[in-house]
Amino acid sequence: MLRAKICRIFFVLLGSLELSFIAIKSYAIYQILKTLKPPWNIDGVTHSSSSFHLQPSPDPKSIFNLLEALSRLEEMPKTLLSTPSLFLIFLSIIISSLPTFSSTPSLGLDSFLSDQYRRDPLAGNDSFTFLPTSLKKSLSLSTPSSNHKSLISHLLSFQISIPVYVKLVGHFSAAAPSLLQFFASAALSSAQFQVIGSNPHHLVVSHLLHLEAAYSPLGSEISAAIRSHVDSSTVPFHRSVLFPVPHSVVDRIVRDDFEKESSNSAPGFYIYLLNLDQQSKRYAYSYDAKDSSLAFSKCLGTIWTGKERYMWIDLAAGPVDYGPALSGEGLLPRGEFHPLASLHKSPRPEKALLADLASLVLSAYQTLLVPSLRISLFLESMLLIQFIRIHGSDNQGLAGLDWAFIEQTLRESDLSFKEQTLLFKSYSVKYSECPICSFSIAKSMNSYTSRFLFENYTLIVSEYLDSKHLSKLLRGSLAEIHRAAGITDDVYGKVLPVFVFDLDYDKIIFLDRFHQAVAFRDMVIVVRSRNPQTVSDYSCNGRHVITNARNLNRAIVGSVLQSMWGVTPTHLTWSQEHNSTMVDYTWSVGQTPFGPFSELSSLSFVQKDAAKRNVLLISLNYSITSAIDLLESMEAHGGYRKLLKNSRYVEFVQRWNLLKYKLEKIISAMSQLDYDKAIYFLRSSDLDLYALYTVIYQATQELEASLVCFKDPSFPWVSAFVAAGILFGFFYVYAKRDKLFRSKRKQF
């Protein structure tokens, strides 16, 4: 409108060259000022004018063209400014002021939401209110199906693609990558995400493995690095079947290759399968800088999971074995049946080897890349972890219980989203100041018997704490414990108390006989006594695992991960086929805070990704089930087409299509491992879902009950005449039976 008015003014003033010159300059300056509007700040969120008027952002190229045209106009002598030249100059300024095609106001929905994500990353504002009219019209074009079952089936069909890149390193044929992909795709299809601590145990969202295998030329470099270390190192003092090689020897090479590969490809998980040359000694990898000894043997393994999204498996190392020493599930055997021992079997065709490797990759995929969720949890703006140490004597040391180390480990692991606040507080209380604490310990104490082979089978009585009974007592006395420890309930959000019981016992006291710490949905319970170490019921490479009973840092980190972020230990998975939790210690060595075979407290990408993905999956599952409940509620009222009228019908269609689009964007962002963008679309979709509930609620409030009286149906004359005719025919035949059936009667 304004541009047309200026054009008309220009042609009116065209007779006067001086006035025309002034008009051109004024129009050009107006265009520059219009593109440089300052941003506005409303409700604490900064918006530019484009977020309200839906204009494109300033195009530097257009501004540059305007300035260049003005400079040329100033340089030209006024005597040369004739009417045709002024017209051409004015036309060039109008063309240069037009926005380019990439920044036209008719932005696509994807571009609009990307712009909203940049302006409002916390999704505090409803993006629907800022939609331009053209986009709202486009959302109205696609009418949802009137059959609510088809809409529900669409909501239940969301699948998150999990990109996995398998790198074959070492002695593999050219056909190995394609064969590995074939075996993996044939063995596993899409499956739903599982939750251990909820019922039902599955979510409505599924995951789909997208595997790509390729050859990597790192074999010679890694083999040379291992050979150099083995040849230059001295044999350890104590005898061991396996020679310890620091994992950093291989990890340094693999990490450099991962950084190079990941920078040139889409985000994904990288699994390196190493089929290396045989070394002069059998070897396995150590994960701790401390050397093994006769007293403390380190558990050597053949795998490593990095802090970034990569892991490697050395098939030539080992064979190793670890798991329960006496009885139990989850043992990794030394024999030929486990895929980790594929290269240690008798020679066989490459197809058989690749079949084992495909099984190994799928096991890593199910346990590490798409692990089961420990518990259901939701997005909270504030997370508070309360360390509550309950102790007896004053001179009892804090060695093995470092709050600062635990806090640093959890903070540096980047487990929370940007909008979440993670707080830590520590408290200390004596048993003499907390009678309910002493009562809870005494009430939860149990004993069990076991036999050990000394001179004969000696019967030994040991004590342990029943964690379930203890947690029940603590829940019922939280107020008294808070009062004794000086805890104030002034923080809103999710609060996780970590109760550490420092007992003045000389004997070993564990929770449920085996655990230093047990994680519950609403608390973590940790216990230790004065006894510094004990022999556990687990073995690694033929030797019993020694448990440092005084060191609680690693146990607390693992338990907090389970209770606060729902991260499942690496040896637990939920099996839908068995309808129970399965135990497998294959992946419980290396960089993991879970299990008895590792001493590292640092977290790998497995725990980091699971912490954020779990929150997204549970929240997305809740949004989808809420949308399904909405559809079923509308169907009970006759469907949305009968329930909604006029403007509400249009708003429902627009909102529904926008909600469906945002749900698809959540799936896309999670498939690209962009969890920050996924949480934005999730929060934004919640606003649309709330608006849909509001629309339906308002529509149901306007429903009026009515009683419709039906007229009595008319007499069925046709049916009556037909029945009468049939009855008349029957009586007629019966009356004339002698005449009609005379020929059938026997004559005498």
Automatic annotation (TrEMBL):
The chain crosses the membrane at residues 9-30, 715-735. Pfam families: DUF7906. Residues 161-371 form the DUF7906 domain. Keywords: Membrane, Transmembrane, Transmembrane helix. It comes from the Eukaryota. This is DUF7906 domain-containing protein. It comes from Dendrobium thyrsiflorum (Pinecone-like raceme dendrobium).
